Fold this protein.
Amino acid sequence: MNKIRDMINKVTEWLSVVILAIMTLLVTWQVITRFVFKSPSSITESLAKYLFVWLVLITAAYVIGKREHMAIEFFASRYSKKTQNILSIISEVVIFIFVALVLTYGGGYIAMHAMNQTDSSLSIPMGIVYLALPVSGVLSMFYSICNIVDDVKSLTSSKKEQ
């Protein structure tokens, strides 16, 4: 499972870097066309906006996998390591359920229903933009499962030490 996680981490990292690089080029070109040529490009503006949506959702899943998302650890830090692991498992289960219902199911539903709606400037189906939701959801669910497995392993190893 760790090998798959490492591979998905690398793909996600590179995908995020590539999207950010493309966005940087698009926005730079947008600024040049707007202020130098006095003729802004609507294509670069729309594409940068849609790539930003993908970037945010893909990296949000990555952050869940790295456990670097926002967390309020004021209460959890007061408990023993075992209790912290149990609270972490509960938190990951809640994240999994939310992501499964909202991003994966809801996002997939929206993406499929938006495939016949096209963007005016790019002429691409809006469902492609909305596909970022279920893709991020599946990644987040995978990472959440990995985190739960790590916590359960930590719990069982702490029981063996006692």
In short: The chain has a mean pLDDT of 91. The helical segments are 2-35, 42-66, 81-113, 126-130, 132-161. The radius of gyration is 20 Å. DSSP finds five helices and no strands in the chain.
